[in-house]
Amino acid sequence: MIQLLSVAIVAGLFFGCWTEWFDRDDPSGAGDWETLVELRKEYPGKICADPIDVEARTLTGLTVAAAGDVIYVSDTTDGFVCRNQDQPKKNMCKDYRVRFSCPSSFCKGCWTEWFDRDDPTVTGDWETLVELRKEYPGKICANPIGVEARTLSGLTAAAAGDVIYLSDATNGLVCRNQDQPNDKMCNDYRVRFSCPPSFCEVCWTKWFDRDDPSGTGDWEGAIDLSTENPGQICANPLSIEAVTTDTLTPATSTGQTFFIYNPADGFVCRNTDQTYGACRDYKVRFGCPCT
Fold it and tell me: Residue 125 and residue 116: Cα distance in Å, rounded?
């Protein structure tokens, strides 16, 4: 979890936050290397692009000064490095953990739910934003800030030992089987995205059900709903949810095919698009900016 607190800077008072503590290395080799480059690989999306400050403490809670180690690097550009060769009397560095102070634009965001749309049984595990948006309409912000990937058992890609072909907030995650050593198959991953405050701070409308699927299908269009319910739906919804009216099953869990499902146009399920039977009866609600 991101811990909120205020941070004073020269230009005035600034409200930011500290990340969680990270400990990726032990000093048993050349020293303790908690570098930003490696931390970002192992903890994607959890450290802001331009940290304001860095803090290091031993695993027992001592500051660097109290621990008495000679530190090689400790800054917001490179992270933290304590080299064993720099310590007096051939001592070894203590084991450190680090955290970074980030601006408020990073702190006030939120994480989506976890998504797992693919299995690695064919060419690999393809958790791409394009496909995830199709399968989970309205659940991912337009411009994610970061992405995090974990195996279904909770391991990071680094801990799982997989070679990742793609992992960024623009495209999502791709692990290709062909890139793995020794003919190994990728692990099965789930992903989530970090989104800006405008997406996180959503106020939901009431549920609307204007149509039944007895004709050509269930048409819960945004224009028709706004016309029939004046002033109850914002002009530019941020997200949309659809569930069945009887069991409240999420539309994405019914196995049905949808012609339209997005916050701008609303929701349409056409009977002609279904493999078996007709559309179920759905109701929808819209996520609007909170005022």
Answer: 9
Residue 99 β-bridge partners: 55
- At residue 259, φ and ψ (nearest 5 deg) are -80, -40
For residue 212, give the DSSP letter.
Answer: -
pLDDT in tens, the chain (291 residues): 333 333 333 333 344 788 888 999 999 999 999 999 999 888 877 888 889 999 999 988 888 988 999 999 999 999 999 999 999 988 999 999 999 998 877 777 788 888 999 999 999 999 999 999 988 887 888 888 788 888 888 888 878 889 999 988 889 999 999 999 998 999 999 999 888 777 777 789 999 999 999 999 999 999 999 999 999 999 888 888 999 999 888 888 888 999 998 888 999 999 999 998 999 999 999 988 776
Distance of alpha carbon 286 from alpha carbon 235, whole angstroms: 11
Indicate the pTM of the whole model: 0.51
Query: What CA–CA distance (Å, rounded) separates 148 from 37?
Result: 15
In b/e form, how buried is each residue of 168-180, taking b as 16+ CB within 10 angstroms? Answer: ebeebbbbbbeeb
Instruction: Give CA 237 to chain center in angstroms.
Output: 21
What is the C-alpha to C-alpha distance for residues 82 and 283, in angstroms, rounded to an integer? 58
How many angstroms separate the CA atoms of 176 and 189, rounded? 12
Whether the CB-CB separation of 163 and 181 falls below 8 Å is answered with yes
